Amino acid sequence: MADKYDYDVLVIGAGPGGYVAAIRAAQLGLKTACAESRETLGGTCLNVGCIPSKAMLHASELYDEAASGRMAKLGIKVTPELDLDTMHGQRKDAVKQLTGGIEYLFKKNKVTWLKGRAAFEDAHKVKVGDDTVTAKNIVIATGSSVTPLPGVEIDQKVVVDSTGALELPKVPEHMVVIGGGVIGLELGSVWRRLGAKVTCIEFLDQILPGFDGDVRKESNKIFKKQGIDFKLGTKVSKVAVKGDKATLTLEPAKGGDAETMEADCVLVSIGRRPNTDGLALDKAGLKTNQRGQIAIDHDFRTGVDGVWAIGDVVPGPMLAHKAEDEGIAVAENIAGQTGIVNHDIIPSVVYTWPEIAGVGLTEEAAKEKGEVKVGKFPMMANSRAKTNHEPDGFVKVIADAKTDRVLGVWCIASVAGTMIAQAAQAMEFGATSEDIAYTCHAHPTHSEAVKEAAMAVTGKPIHI
């Protein structure tokens, strides 16, 4: 297929969307290359995002379990000692193994890794480092980076972003997290467990924007109980750094008197923005919208023939698994097959303790579309959660009042991220709440709470 081009497919970016697109394209018999400027493959997710943060979340959970005395209640008496260097070491090791794994998969599938930054010269020609290559199809998968807070300089010492927050050489005395979204809550949880005082400042009147209302309220209570302080409806207007301390100026979002707060670490986590700077999109005939995203059609085609885009640079949630699914779909579309992603069923997970997960519509969004029935079941009534001493949280199933079709499922539980896959799969098949309620679930498992919440939609849970 390549004929006059160097490659059938050139993918720009080797994050979850890009590397998956490249591997799938190669599997489908297309001559494929992937341009990546980082020293290792895997993008933000594997190098400085999802993977290293989970390594620190898991290790800090175990430390907290021991330090809090919860282990003693199970008959295990320990006095833990924090070795932060070793904790960082196991994080780096996880990253090294997984990024190396992708390099192996590139070799196995005969994907050429072009090392260097890519910029368009025209719609089929791209400069990568000092070389210029041509491709019949080009997939933009350059991901996203941290949204800066105006007037606040990130020095990665006192004022850090999510990357710097993973690398702190010592536990801060007081960490202030700006932003009550997923990243801020996860990284704030890590350092709170390891001994830091953590204050989370959120501009909106509740944490976790975009999540179901009940989940947002309950999560806030749980995190408060764990020792995270919240200042909601508050904006940070200034951060002044002097030596190894920062002074933050805080103002009520709705107006009022300003106050100051001191911290020795400030984490800026107010969101992410698409990485399109430096791509010379104009040379390919492309523009971005107001949010810096590239417009695409249902098949991931841009407005320019032969140029496609996926992941964080296109509209939709900035999630690694969404990008991966789009990577498979775009490769299949390029190969003449039918690649589809159901964007209505993309699960979201917060990897705190307990985990928080959801898929589909929130109750608020579902009610805007019509009449709904809702079933809830508390984790404290679930036998596995009870034996594991994990009473916090619930499962909530939202169904259409007339058809009983499941519109959304939300849960807070120690393994919510794993539990949500069942809900996503059920919804992909158009399940009703009754379908879930009458599916046999193994006992005792956390997932029985999904069954019971589905039974509660029609008012007949057994264990409450």
From TrEMBL:
PROSITE patterns assigned to the protein according to its UniProt record, in alphabetical order: PYRIDINE_REDOX_1
Keyword Repeat listed: no
Regions that span the bilayer: none
Keywords from the UniProt entry: Disulfide bond, FAD, Flavoprotein, NAD, Oxidoreductase, Redox-active center
Domain Pyridine nucleotide-disulphide oxidoreductase dimerisation: 346-454
Any one GO molecular-function label of the UniProt entry: dihydrolipoyl dehydrogenase (NADH) activity
Catalytic activity: N(6)-[(R)-dihydrolipoyl]-L-lysyl-[protein] + NAD(+) = N(6)-[(R)-lipoyl]-L-lysyl-[protein] + NADH + H(+)
The record's free-text note on cofactor binding: Binds 1 FAD per subunit.
E.C. no: 1.8.1.4
Pfam family for this entry, one: Pyr_redox_2
Domain of life: Bacteria
Organism, as annotated: Stakelama flava
PANTHER family: DIHYDROLIPOYL DEHYDROGENASE, MITOCHONDRIAL, DISULFIDE OXIDOREDUCTASE
Similarity annotation: Belongs to the class-I pyridine nucleotide-disulfide oxidoreductase family.
Ranges of residues in domain FAD/NAD(P)-binding: 7-327
Cofactor(s) annotated in UniProt: FAD
Alphabetized InterPro entries for the sequence: Class-I_Pyr_Nuc-Dis_Oxidored, FAD/NAD-binding_dom, Lipoamide_DH, Pyr_nuc-diS_OxRdtase, Pyr_nucl-diS_OxRdtase_dimer, Pyr_OxRdtase_I_AS
Protein's name in the database: Dihydrolipoyl dehydrogenase
Note from the entry: The active site is a redox-active disulfide bond.
